[in-house]
Amino acid sequence: MRYFWLLLLSLSPLLAQALTFTDLSRLTQTPATLSGQFQQHKYLQALDTTIDSNGQFSYRRDKEIRWQTLAPVADLLVMTPQGLSGSNTAAAMAGNTDSNPTLALVGTLFFAVMSADWQVLQQHFSLTGSEQGKEWKATLIPLDDDIRLAVQRIELQGDAYLHHLELYEVSGDQVRIEFTDLTP
């Protein structure tokens, strides 16, 4: 039994520690601006297929998120606290948050994820996760009934910045996004 405890103690620095929203605030940065590249993989359960896309994004705190898809089809989505606008397929999602409370909530949550605003996310999600050194993994489970209608869970990974996001929808669809070349 003594050897078991010695082994456990010797491995303890290698084991990941439980994660809280306070820990995430300490581990992550919330720059005024952030830009980078993304690779997105959207699995559509009804078609049993994955659609891959890539592009660039830029973020200005409390102002806007520009999500520019470069391939397979060029598209631009601009999200502000007031609503969505865009070109091509993004235009179909456009709307004003004053007249659409669901759109307002989606916008608030997307801004919170992109800006590491853990206080906002704490109001809408429970958290499980771990940290190891400067890297962390978090799973967000919706607390709000409105969010639970669409989202099962969101899995996030990163260090000072978010590098990986997975969104699991109630419909069975999944979105996986990798963020690279991040520049504040």
TrEMBL record:
Monomer. InterPro entries: LolA/LolB/LppX, OM_lipoprot_carrier_LolA-like. Residues 1-18 form the signal peptide. Pfam families: LolA. This is Outer membrane lipoprotein carrier protein LolA. CDD domains: LolA. The keyword Protein transport applies. The keyword Transport applies. It comes from Pokkaliibacter plantistimulans. Keywords: Protein transport, Signal, Transport.
